[in-house]
Write a structure and sequence with these properties.
- This is Na+-translocating membrane potential-generating system MpsC domain-containing protein.
- InterPro entries: MpsC.
- By secondary structure, this protein is of the alpha+beta class.
- The protein is built from four helices and four strands.
- It has a single domain (about 5-110), classed as Threonyl-tRNA Synthetase, Chain A, domain 2, CATH 3.30.980.
- Helices cover about 45% and strands about 25% of the residues.
- Helix 1 packs antiparallel against helix 4.
Amino acid sequence: MSRNMEHQFSMLVREIRKEFVGNGPKEISTRFIGSWAVSEMRGNLTNIEKFMMNSIDGEKMVHEARTEFVKKIYNDKGVRQRFEELMGAHIVRIFSDIDIEADIAMTVFVFDKPLQSKE
C-alpha cells in the first residue's frame, strides 16, 4: 500500500474527528499492516478537556467520554462507508483508546482483506 493511501486515510480520520468532535488531532500517522490500518493521533484533547483533567475525577471522565464517543462515531454507517470506499474493503472491527496524560490516541481498523493499492 502506498504512502499516499496512508496519507489519504489519515486525512479522512482527521476530517471525521473534526466533523464530530470539533477539532482533529494535531498530528496523525497511519500505517497499513496486512488487513489492519493503525492510526496514531497526537494532540487530541480540547482546551475544555485539558481543564477538566485538573479536577479529581476529571481524567477518568475525559477518558471515558473520549473512548465511548469515538466508538459511537465509528459505529455510524456513513462514517464506516467513507473508510470502506477509500480502501475497497469492509470494516470488520475497530479498536480505539486514548492515553489522556500523553494526549495520544490509537485506532486500529480491521478490514475483511489485506489492504492493497487501488491502482
